[in-house]
Structures are given as C-alpha cells and as structure tokens.
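Risk register update: the risk that structure generation would not scale has been downgraded. Supporting records follow, first protein first.
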Amino acid sequence: MKRYIAEGLTRYLGEFHSVWHMPGHKRKAVDYSGDFEALKQVFDGEKDALKRLDLTLDMLHELDVTEVPGLDDLHNPMEMILESEKELARVYDTLASYYLVNGSTGGIFAAISACVSHKDKIIVASNCHKSVHNIIELLELEAVYVSLKGLEIVDESIKKACDDNTDAKAVIITSPTYEGVISDIDRISRIVHEAGMKLIVDEAHGAHLPFICSLKKYSAIYNGADVIIQSLHKTMSSMTQTALLHVMDEELNLNIKKYLSVFMSSSPSYIMLLDMERAVYMAQNKDYEKYLSRLYLTRDRLKKLNNITLLDNREDFDKINRNNISKKTEITKDKYTNSFIIDPTRIVLYAKEPIKGAGLYKLLSDEYGIVCEMSGLDYVVLISTYFDTDEDFDYLYNSLKNLDDNYDLYIKKIKDIEKESNQVYTFNANFKDKAYIEKTVDILKDLEGTVAKDNIYVYPPGIYIVKKGEIYTKESIDVLISHVRQGRQLRGELI
C-alpha cells in the first residue's frame, strides 16, 4: 500500500507556514521553543515520566493539522486522502473503503442509515453492539431480533426472520464476536440477498482477518456482505477510535458517503488518518507466519492445563453458552449444519469452579499483571496480535501454568479475602461490598414481569441483556443477578 497521506503530510510539514488557523496549539510545543529535532533530543534525555508524557503530546501537536490549502478534507477528498482510500479499496478488493475517525460506532450509524429509512424494519442479531441499538432508536426503526444458536448466528435463524419479515430492508450481524466466533457469512449473505435485503456485518473484531492467509476467506468482505465495518485499533497497529468501512454494493455507496459526513466529526484528525494508513501498510507487509507459529504453540501448551481451560472448539463454546450473554440463547443442536470458525488470535479461558469470570480476571491482574480484554460470567477474553513477542507468550503461559499448579491455594486466598473484608473478589478496581450487591439483587428480583425503562448491559462487551420496553423475565433477571454477584456494574437505569 502506498502511503499517500504520509507522503503528503511530510511534504506539507517541510514547507514554511505562518499559522493563523486552528488548532489552537499552532503545531508548537507548549513549553519548548526549539524546533522538532531539538524537542526530540530533550525527550530522549528526559527522565521524569510526566514531562516525557507532555513532550510526547508536544510532538504529536507537530502532526496535528487541519483542512487548509496543501492538505485534503476527509469529507470531500480530492488529493492525498482520496488516493489513500483508493489504495484501501485496492488492498481489500472492495468497491470502496473509507477511513473512520470516530470508531466503528460512526461506521455502524452510517451503514444502517444508508440501508434503511426512518421507521423501516431491520433484522438484528441479538448480540449486536449497543451502537446498533442506539441508531435503531434514533431512526425509530422496527427491530426484529434473531437469537443465537450457541454463540453464532446460523442461517436457519436468519432465513426464518427474512421469511417472516419480508418488508425488512436490512440485516445486521456481528462476526467475529468478542469471543472470536466467526459465523458462516457466505450462507447468510445468500439468504439475505435472496430476500431482497442488504447485509451489514459488524466485523469490528476482525480487522486482521484479511491479512492472515488461513483466515482471510472468513472475512465478511469476501463472503457477500454489502457493508463491513472494522475497528483497526482492536487487532491492528492503530490508535483507539480508528476504523474502516468497506462497501461492496454500488447502489449504497453514495448514501454511505452522505451519512459518513453526517456522523463523523467535521474536523477529522490527521494523526488518526496517518495512523490508519500506516496500520494497513504494516499489516499488508507483515509476515504473520512467525507470529502464528508462536500463537499456536502457546494454544497447544494451554490445552494441557488442568484447572484452566482454553476454549478451542464448538463443544467447549457450547459448554459455557448457558451463561454467555442471555439465557434466551439456544444451545446448538446436532440438526444445525452450520459450523462456526474460531479465530485463534482470541484466547478465551475459563476456570474450574468456584472461580468465575470476574474472579479469574482479577486474579490474573492482581497476581501476574495480566490485564484481559474482558470477562464474561464464566470466562475471560485475551486479544493477541502480531505485536506479542516470544517473551509475551512465554510470560502468559508460565503465569497461567503457575496459577493452574497453585489453583487450590488461590481459591483459599480468595475465600479468605472475602471472609475478612465482607467484599466480593471482582475484576473492578475496588471490591464490591456484599451488602450493596444484595440490595441490588433484591431490586432485580422485584423487577420480574415489569417493563424495562432503560437498556441494561455490562461493558465490555456492550451487548444489551435487557432492552428498553422489554419485559423482565426470570431468565434475564438471573443473568443480571449473576453479573451483579460477580461485582460487575450494570449500565442503564433499573428503576
């Protein structure tokens, strides 16, 4: 991938400009009057952590430009950004690809808005991110929710939803999931298109898939989806809040561009644009094989632990399904012919009783300094990328091996902590007081049969457990209580 934005920005910064426009820092260091090279020397010699942080921000200011002559405009690209986005489309083999400076959320908003109109009907996988529900509420759409079979969306469920709702305009699903489950997008896309609808895939957790030979064929880009949204910051070398949107349907492209301008900032960050372009360039030129060999070796070693289980196949995932997101989900039956793929870069672990997901999360953090991406009720999720070194993988395995070998001692330690402090051992920064937890549990028990006044969820993963206007059932309340007892904070107003 040719780095048009990097080349254009380098050329612009090499010219003289008397800056009488925003941003207000005027591309100058706040507390240093020298040039950029001198500033870098000061940074290299600085020992104080706070000063080094400030100097880092000063150096970023050097790159923080806006839409002025000699540069380009993300909302109306004509030069370097236009050429860079053309390169994206070439690299990904899409009709069009766009940089997003406000994360996948902006892409999801634009994609849904481009595919449906106000108060239209849309078919939605029940495990979609909260951003999907937010745009549904903003557009006052009628949402038809499709439950999972195990941890995947299967074609039988999508077909039934399409057959029962022929007036729906689009279908949106999540693949891969937080846990790395990749559904059969090819089969789903054929069903959706036969029904005359558009397929949107939230592939936020799968930005790396197109660059790994063994996984590329599972990306929604190459399996018939109409719009695909990917978060570059989740699994590639790009800053938080960076993402891409890919379009495969010419009919949608003009609408997509229209709504990207609606939902993205009118002052897009050149630093983010620069970083996204570099992330794709790096991924395209990265030899993933060495990384994958380290990853698979570690996975093989983790499979041999006794008290910690690596989720590695369908049977493992079905085993923990009952406590996944909602008790409404159905266990996968043999009659279903779908078979999901597990993204091996996701390391999903669960421990033997009595340690639950939140306890395992905190244990790994407190005892070994291992900070996981998230915890579910029964498991934790770790994200691996090609930035993980041999040392990183060795440390992860050795820590888990030590935890596994001393499992009974850790159980006793947790019980002693809870007994002495009257608090629950949880992944939160502070323990949750048991009295507070019991009070919340009592409130939840009284909600059965009532209408939810707000969307209720935990974050991460930001998937609604109960939606606004839904009836609280015993099943949904049991799931909420399980989260609360583990000290997880519920988002949304209960009463």
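Supporting record for the second protein:
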Amino acid sequence: MNPMLRLILAQGMLGLNNGVFYAMLSLGLAVIFGLLDVVNFAHGALYMSGAFLAIILYSYIGTWLGLSWLHIGFWAALVLVPLIVACFGMLFERFLLRWLYGLDPIYSLLLTFGAALVLQGIFINGFGASGTPYPGTPDQLQGIVNLGFMMFPKFRLFTIIFSILVCIGVWFLIERTRIGAVLRAGTENPDLVRAFGINVSRLITLTFGFGTGLAGLAGVLAAPIYSVTPLMGDDLIIIIFAIVVIGGMGSIMGAVVTSLGLGLLEGVVKVFYAPAANTVVFIAMVLVLLVRPSGLFGRQR
C-alpha cells in the first residue's frame, strides 16, 4: 500500500475515534436543546463526571464500603454510570432548571455554567487537577487488531462501533418510535399532550436525564483512553457546541453526521498540516453559517 495512503487511513481512524466522542456528546446536547430548548453548558462537566465515576466504582467504592475486594469493572460501569448521571440530571432539572422555563434562555445557560463549575470544583478537591488513569480496562478489549493499514487498539475499535450503534439507536428512538413522537409533541404542544393524560413535566425530566446520561456514557468510554482530569470536559465543550451549530441546533442526525465527518477531517488534516487540525471545526462552522445559517440539517425559519 502507498505510504501516504496508509498514513491518511491511519490518521482517519484516529480522527474517527475522536469523532465518536464528539457524536456522543453532541447527541446529548442535541436531544436536550432540540426537545427542551435548553443550552446545557454543564454537558462537558457531566462527561467528566462519568469518567470519574467509572474510576470511583472500580478503585474506591470497595474501600468506602469496607469491602477492599470489591471492584466494579468497566462493563458494569457502562450501565451504572449513565444511570447515575441521568438521575443527577433529572434532579437538577426537577429542582433547579424547571424554575427558569419561560424566562430568557440566558438564565438557564448561566445556571448550567455554574453547575459545571461546581462539579469541577468537587472533583478537583477530591482528586486534584492532575490526570488520573483508569485501571479497569477489561482483558477482552486489551491488545491490538490488524486493520491491514495499521495496528489499531481493540478498545478504540470497540468505542467506535459501540458509539455508532448508540447514536443510531438514539436517532431511531427519537425519530421513528411512538415514544419519540410523544417526546416531540410534549415539547411542541404540551397542552394537547396533557389532554391525552400524559404527564408532560415528567416527560421533560426524563428527556433531560436521558441527554445527560449520554454524556455520562461517553465519559465511561473515554476513561480508559484519555487521562481523566476535572477539566477534560472544558477541552471538548466548545468543539461540541460548534458541531451542534454546524449540524443544526437540535438535529439528532446533524449532530451525529457532523461529528463523525469532522472527526475524520481532523485526522486527515493532521497528515498535511497538523496545526490546522485544532481549528478546522471552527473554520467549517463559519463556512456553513455563511451558506446555511440554520446548519446542515437544521430547519430553515
């Protein structure tokens, strides 16, 4: 194989690995904004919380319970952590965010930004500002796979496949099922939905919890790959907002397709001019907004 082509394919795979994390995070943001019109600035902190919760379940929960032998591993964390983060999100929506509905969106943005700072402060006090490695990568996902053009870590390949399946599942749930239709109707015309005996307030709470749970799931997947730090969400949240804008605010399909596409583009750009990889997302955002202000998949108004 041509060495240049091999390098482009290898960087493309690494970029796709970043792209699936963009997709998981932007998906949660798109669900919350698209259905609730809430700009959740705490999304990056919830992603960070998911990664730290995976570490806590593996390394600390046994000590806290007096059971030094207890280690809750990756597979269990993949289920438990999103549920824990989703429960936190539902409590946050129920007792804090709900009071701001109907007010200027800047208030909810400031509230979620403040929540992000609080979460960061909690984990900085508990773990310090330096990175913490995740020790619980399962044996089945260790090692490498020969893709023909590169040797690729098994765990990274798993995150790509798993994340894409999750994104497809969420899109299908929101766009092609009765539950998704009820969710969309409950946010667009709540009075009509209430007339059918559906508790719209509970529906909104569950929707917010679902969106935050996706951030927690992304954090669990990221923990074995990246150094887990209290500020790891800050490194991504601006990029994620840019991706959501490019794809179209609130568009599930737009968030996923844009994330994967820009992840690949970042990887390929590194082959030719590495410094530009960090700004390619924002260049794309400017170009898209100039041509189509509503985003690639957004509805024109």
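The beta strands are 144-146, 151-153. On this basis the risk owner (M.S.) recommends closing the item.
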